[in-house]
Structures are given as structure tokens and as C-alpha cells.
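Weekly puzzle thread! Below is a chain. First person to post its structure in C-alpha cell form gets bragging rights.
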Amino acid sequence: MAKTPKALGRGDAAPAFKLLDQNENEVTLSDFAGRKLMVFFYPKALTPG
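Winning reply:
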């Protein structure tokens, strides 16, 4: 069974992640180690909701 992700609040540390960028290149949170990073999610992007 899939684990329900924890809701994050402003200022919370982001969990480790691995995603594809707009050019299909893999990007991980650790790629930005030592730098400020803002992660913004569009929860309903590309959905009818």
C-alpha cells in the first residue's frame, strides 16, 4: 500500500525527490545542495480538476 505523503508547510524542509525537468533530464533535490531553492507544485496541473 502506498504511503500518504506528509503535507508540507511554508518553511518546511523538502523531502528528497527525483523528477524529470522540461527537457527530460533527471533533477534531484541534492543537485541544489548549499543553494536556496523554492519548490512550487501545481497539484492540479494537466488534470480536469
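Puzzle host: Confirmed. Bonus trivia for everyone else. The mean pLDDT is 82.
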